[in-house]
């Protein structure tokens, strides 16, 4: 089976690519905005025309395409180019170059917006994203589900695990803990940690992608991929600090992002993924945090490295 992975050099993409390469009979190739670094093809979904993308995809002749490309930060224009235009261009290119290929696209639980405390959101729930990130990811989902292709969107919760970047909260906390070291007098000053989030191990996300790629027959248009439970961010920080052996103090200044304040609860119902893919998380949150810390404490220091506070 020939599998083309877009965005394979990012956090999720690296784990997805590694997992897919371990599947029997899989021949995995990569595509990204920069040649090299695991990307055999140079494809920029945010800027390339559908015709150019179609030509490149035709040269790869994939049986399946996995789209891990996405932007989590930046201005609204950047988010729209990558998260909304990108999937639309990819779907158009696939209809022309490889209409029989299965498309597995990584979406985000941010597409749902605020959840009701104590409830798990299903794939049929109304979507009401509050910011540009969730809105652009939702636009990408619509482009994929309306494409007429053999496609599925995996709506991923908050990924955690080895290699988590400092642009996300788990990776940032791990980096701060590494910088603090064993100093008993160290103080971590953080924003409001009262929100609840659904954390899922990045390795479980990669396994879900593998199952979606190889599943026989059509799949539901959208499947939630999460941990299936809401964890207070404060609890995640405490457990990660314990894993790191941190003996200092953690203080909350009451600040934080507007999105975190407005979305106080997120939790996904993962029943459909179990039914369609026979998938459920294998890693506990403590296992995810242990793997995150093991990777973070040995990461190289330097600009842009995961070990940089």
UniProtKB/TrEMBL annotation:
<dbReference type="InterPro" id="IPR001509">
    <property type="entry name" value="Epimerase_deHydtase"/>
</dbReference>
<feature type="domain" description="NAD-dependent epimerase/dehydratase">
    <location>
        <begin position="3"/>
        <end position="226"/>
    </location>
</feature>
<dbReference type="Pfam" id="PF01370">
    <property type="entry name" value="Epimerase"/>
</dbReference>
<dbReference type="InterPro" id="IPR036291">
    <property type="entry name" value="NAD(P)-bd_dom_sf"/>
</dbReference>
<comment type="similarity">
    <text>Belongs to the NAD(P)-dependent epimerase/dehydratase family.</text>
</comment>
<protein>
    <submittedName>
        <fullName>NAD(P)-dependent oxidoreductase</fullName>
    </submittedName>
</protein>
């Amino acid at each position: 089976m020939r599998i083309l992975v877009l965005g394979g050099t990012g956090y999720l993409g690296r784990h997805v690519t590694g997992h897919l390469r371990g599947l029997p009979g899989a021949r995995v190739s990569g595509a990204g905005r920069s040649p090299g670094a695991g990307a055999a093809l140079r494809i920029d979904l945010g800027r390339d025309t559908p015709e150019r993308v179609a030509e490149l995809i035709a040269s790869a002749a994939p049986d399946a395409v996995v789209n891990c490309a996405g932007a989590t930060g930046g201005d609204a224009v950047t988010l729209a180019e990558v998260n909304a235009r990108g999937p639309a261009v990819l779907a158009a290119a696939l209809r022309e170059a490889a209409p029989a290929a299965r498309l597995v696209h990584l979406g985000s639980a941010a597409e749902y917006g605020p959840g009701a405390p104590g409830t798990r959101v299903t794939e049929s729930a109304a979507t009401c994203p509050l910011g540009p990130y969730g809105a652009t990811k939702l636009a990408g989902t619509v482009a994929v589900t309306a494409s007429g292709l053999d496609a599925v969107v995996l709506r991923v919760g908050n990924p955690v695990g080895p290699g988590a970047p400092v642009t996300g909260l788990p990776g940032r906390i791990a980096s701060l803990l590494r910088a603090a070291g064993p100093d008993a007098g160290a103080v971590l000053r953080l924003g409001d940690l009262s929100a609840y989030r659904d954390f899922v191990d990045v390795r479980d996300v990669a396994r879900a992608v593998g199952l979606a790629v190889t599943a026989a027959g059509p799949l539901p248009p959208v499947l939630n991929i999460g941990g299936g439970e809401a964890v207070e961010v404060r609890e995640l920080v405490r457990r990660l600090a314990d894993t790191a052996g941190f003996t200092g103090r953690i203080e909350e200044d009451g600040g934080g992002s507007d999105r975190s304040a407005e979305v106080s609860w997120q939790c996904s119902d993962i029943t459909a993924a179990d039914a369609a893919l026979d998938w459920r998380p294998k890693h506990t949150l403590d296992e995810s945090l242990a793997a995150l810390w093991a990777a973070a404490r040995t990461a190289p220091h330097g600009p842009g490295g995961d070990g940089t506070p």
